[in-house]
Design goal:
Blueprint (H helix, E strand, L loop, with lengths): L3 E5 L3 H17 L5 E4 L7 E2 L2 E4 L1 H7 L5 E5 L4 H13 L3 E2 L2 E2 L4 E2 L4 E2 L4 E2 L4 E2 L4 E2 L4 E2 L4 E2 L4 E2 L4 E2 L4 E2 L4 E2 L4 E2 L4 E2 L4 E2 L4 E2 L4 E2 L7 E4 L4 E5 L10
Parallel strand pairs: 1-2, 1-5, 2-4, 5-6, 7-10, 8-11, 9-12, 10-13, 11-14, 12-15, 13-16, 14-17, 15-18, 16-19, 17-20, 18-21, 19-22, 20-23, 22-24
Antiparallel strand pairs: 3-4, 24-25
The structure holds coenzyme A.
């Protein structure tokens, strides 16, 4: 039996993920129905999809026939929502947009979303709840840990590891065989050529530490 897909958050990223899912639906008819979960939106129908709060979702969705995907681009929010849904015992969808290529030897964890026009290379491992945005390339044998957000146009060289909850902003390049720690942020167009310690914000070419990531928030000030 086909499952229902619940896209958790109906903001800009949720709407983009919904478009990827519509194209998957047109091509493969993968889900029974697609819905949004959103705890702040007032509309009951948005963008052509019914909207439930998380509490409503828990009442109507049976665990066997439902799968959830987290649709926020803030790693800390991804972490909180994923852990809540996971500890409530729901399944997660793993979604690859129709124009992206994931090589057969790559491994994608539950809740991973790969947006359009990406390439995930051989033996790369994307752990649970990773989001890879448009036009990004993840090199061979990379390990991308839980809740990482790979921004649009990011290129990660082979055998590199990106730590949990890290955010790589638009256009970041990461050299091969580098370790970027957990809770880091790379500012737009950073070129990371050395390992980065946990909890650092880096920027520039080559990327240098500009400050500590104390607030764990990428978008708070934008
Ligand atoms: C990294 C980031 C979170 C830093 O934001 P912030 O904490 O508000 O920091 P500020 O903008 O105050 O910048 C701090 C310093 O770093 C510099 N800086 C910021 N971004 C930079 C960049 N991309 N390259 C070089 N320097 C940069 C600023 O000029 C500033 O330097 P100064 O103190 O000498 O003036 C933000 O620049 C960023 O990249 N956000 C993500 C954007 C993104 O990817 N959006 C994608 C949407 S899909």
């Amino acid at each position: 039996m086909k499952k229902n897909l619940y896209i958790y958050c109906s903001g800009g990223l949720g709407q983009e993920i919904a478009e990827y899912c519509k194209r998957i639906q047109e091509k493969y008819n993968r889900w029974n129905k697609i819905y949004y979960i959103d705890d702040v939106r007032q509309e009951k129908v948005f963008d052509g999809f019914e909207v439930f709060t998380y509490e409503e979702f828990k009442k109507i969705a049976d665990k066997e026939n439902s799968e959830v995907v987290i649709a926020t681009g803030e790693p800390d929010a991804r972490r909180l929502l994923f852990d809540k849904v996971d500890s409530d015992g729901y399944n997660f969808a793993t979604i690859v947009a129709v124009t992206s290529i994931v090589e057969p030897s790559a491994k994608l964890g539950k809740g991973v979303v790969v947006a359009e026009f990406c390439h995930i290379s051989t033996n790369a491992v994307l752990n649970e709840n990773v989001f890879v945005n448009l036009h990004a390339c993840v090199g061979h044998n990379c390990i991308i840990k839980k809740n990482v957000v790979v921004g649009p146009g990011v290129i990660i060289g082979g055998e590199t590891t990106i730590g949990e909850n890290t955010y790589l902003a638009i256009g970041t390049s990461v050299k091969n065989a580098i370790n970027v720690g957990s809770w880091c942020i790379a500012a737009m167009n950073s070129a990371i050529i050395h390992d980065v310690d946990c909890g650092k914000i880096v920027a520039g070419i080559p990327a240098k530490v500009i400050k500590d990531n104390i607030e764990h928030g990428v978008f708070k000030k934008n």
